[in-house]
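Hi all, posting the design record for the shared folder.

TITLE: backbone redesign
STEP: 1 of 1
STRUCTURE INPUT:
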């Protein structure tokens, strides 16, 4: 199915202003059409019917994140760093590890390339009298290049709203910290048929706050809440369906160029056994891994699943 590309943005200007430059680039549309035509031709050659859900596929580099959450001790974290450093990452992949804040400096001094570091959260504005928080300025000062924002655990346990996550995303980006922005539906929302609407509302709150250029420094992590820490992974087709829907929405609400380049990670019970098959899906551009990222060998295997990416 050929998709018609919108030439205007439909994202409204809510509490934070959207850049007027948020228009579909004609060159991006052409490049995208070409890319899609190539993919469909290859699919036909392979005797497969090109899925109507694949609207443009991701073109960015595969990226795997390890979200260590609130786990570890000095001893276990030193062992994990040693295990990661001794693992062989052979695939062409970007890797980002997010240790607990108190160990971040230690991990940063231990992990070697290609590992990059992320924080698991930061404050919505400039630091100050915000007990227990960490500001984006502090992350920047400490050379932490990435932050995970909007994780479902923070949304559900700490009451972070879509709008709050949008504002945090913009503040971190403006401070020079790149963002892994998490979205995803609960089981009840999926069962009610609301999966895409929930994801789009979460995304819209971010789109309303950032400029088109900001998307160069944002990764979207689609993490169905029902799959997080449950051992119940989304099937590759379930994940692909949402990823393709998200990319199509980005195409219609941001631009064809951003839609094609933005990387969409899947997160939720990814492990060494299921990663290779998930990685073959055209709109899955990486993973955000919780439990399995605490096992160095398993995590390296998940990073190397990038070799299966299409
Ligand atoms: P999980 O967590 O891999 O343990 O399901 C993923 C996440 O919450 O990022």
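Okay, here is what came back for every position:
SEQUENCE:
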């Amino acid at each position: 199915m050929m998709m018609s590309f919108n030439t205007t943005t439909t994202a409204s200007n809510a509490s934070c202003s959207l850049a007027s430059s948020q228009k579909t680039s004609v060159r991006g549309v052409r490049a995208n059409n070409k890319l899609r035509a190539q993919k469909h031709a290859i699919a036909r050659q392979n005797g497969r019917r090109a899925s109507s859900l694949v609207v443009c596929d991701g073109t960015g580099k595969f990226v795997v994140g390890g979200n260590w959450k609130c786990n570890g001790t000095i001893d276990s974290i030193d062992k994990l760093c040693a295990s990661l450093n001794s693992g062989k990452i052979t695939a062409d992949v970007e890797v980002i590890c997010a240790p607990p804040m108190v160990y971040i400096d230690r991990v940063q001094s231990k992990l070697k390339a290609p590992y990059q570091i992320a924080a698991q959260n930061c404050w919505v504005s400039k630091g100050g009298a915000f007990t227990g928080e960490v500001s984006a300025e502090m992350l920047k000062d400490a050379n932490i290049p990435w932050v995970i924002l909007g994780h479902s655990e923070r949304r559900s346990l700490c009451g972070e709203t879509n709008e709050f996550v949008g504002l945090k995303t913009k503040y971190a980006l403006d401070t020079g910290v790149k963002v892994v922005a998490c979205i995803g539906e609960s089981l009840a929302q999926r069962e009610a048929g609301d999966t895409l609407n929930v994801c789009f509302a979460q995304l819209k709150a971010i789109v309303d706050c950032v400029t088109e250029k900001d998307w160069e420094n944002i990764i979207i992590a689609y993490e169905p809440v029902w799959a997080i820490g449950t051992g119940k992974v989304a099937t590759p087709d379930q994940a692909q369906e949402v990823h393709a829907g998200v990319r199509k929405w980005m195409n219609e609400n941001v631009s064809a160029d951003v839609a094609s380049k933005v990387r969409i990670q899947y997160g939720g019970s990814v492990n060494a056994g299921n990663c290779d098959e998930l990685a073959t899906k055209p709109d899955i551009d990486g993973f955000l891994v919780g439990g399995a990222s605490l096992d160095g060998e398993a995590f390296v295997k998940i990073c190397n699943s990038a070799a299966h990416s299409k």
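COMMENT: The pocket of 2-phosphoglycolic acid is lined by residues 67, 223, 228-229, 267-270, 288-292 (CB under 6 Å).
Let me know if anyone wants the other runs.
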